[in-house]
Design a protein that fits this description.
This protein has 255 residues and is mostly helical. Helices cover 55% and strands 5% of the residues.
Length: 255
């Protein structure tokens, strides 16, 4: 939302609003976590203000209202069901209903003073080489995924499983192959199942009525399902590719 509000749409065209249905503390935590600057961040003061029969958690779809306060969409496509296509759906709705398109940002062209010419001196050429190396280092740095340790949740078994998942993910990043990906999926599948059982046991996130659109349990489970679906789909694709390469190699050796 912050990316939409800050970069994708011109200020004044679209106002993005998030309403926390938990506490003021959680609303502030979200603001800090996602660095809200142009998103309007709100919260309900008590459970008595909880929406009834209307609305859902953000990952389950957005509510769209026109400038006159009329509801245009009760629920856009959910990220948990459609992935990035859910964002495209919202952008298309804004385009079709209001004629509002994402802003096209101009590409910044490097200064010609950094580009070598036929009359450039050797020092200028050397400077250009250094600039290229610096750019490559920056690109490499940007593409590096820095896994931050998961904070303790206060349950020893969960903390231990989080560490196991982190170790498996770190190994996948340093050595990406079907074996390390399969190890990650095994750890995640076991952890997600245990976590959901604990949430049900202790009544966390309204697990009894998991059809409630504001049920954190329902949203959390769907998030788990989506992660595993992506992982197992990629594992199947990578395994098929590896088998095809093996068959090709054997065929070449026999000719």
């Amino acid at each position: 939302m912050e990316k939409w509000a800050s970069h994708t749409y011109s200020k004044g065209d679209v106002q993005f609003l998030t309403v926390c249905v938990d506490s003021l503390g959680v609303a502030k935590q979200f603001a800090n976590m996602f660095r809200f600057a142009n998103v309007v961040n709100c919260h309900i003061p008590s459970r008595g203000y909880m929406p009834v029969g209307y609305g859902q958690l953000g990952c389950s779809g957005f509510i769209v209202v026109d400038p006159q306060g009329n509801f245009v969409s009760r629920k856009t496509r959910a990220y948990l069901d459609y992935g990035d296509a859910a964002f495209t759906h919202l952008e298309k709705l804004l385009q079709d209903r209001f004629g509002i398109s994402p802003v096209k940002r101009k590409t910044v062209v490097p200064s010609t003073s950094f580009l070598p010419t036929s009359s450039s001196s050797s020092s200028s050429s050397s400077s250009t080489t250094v600039n290229k190396k610096e750019k490559q280092e920056e690109e490499k740095k940007d593409s590096t995924v820095d896994l931050q340790p998961v904070p303790s949740v206060g349950i020893d078994s969960m903390d231990a499983e989080h560490e196991q998942c982190e170790e498996a993910l770190s190994l996948l990043l340093t050595s990406p192959n079907t074996q390390t990906l399969e190890s990650v999926l095994i750890e995640l599948t076991s952890h997600f199942s245990h976590e959901e059982d604990l949430m049900k046991k202790h009544g966390f996130g309204q697990p009894v009525d998991s059809t409630d659109p504001f049920s954190p349990f329902r949203s959390h489970v769907k998030d788990h399902e989506r992660i595993l679906e992506l992982g197992y789909t990629e594992l199947a694709r990578a395994s098929t590719k590896a088998q095809a390469m093996a068959c090709s190699s054997k065929g070449g050796g026999g000719s």
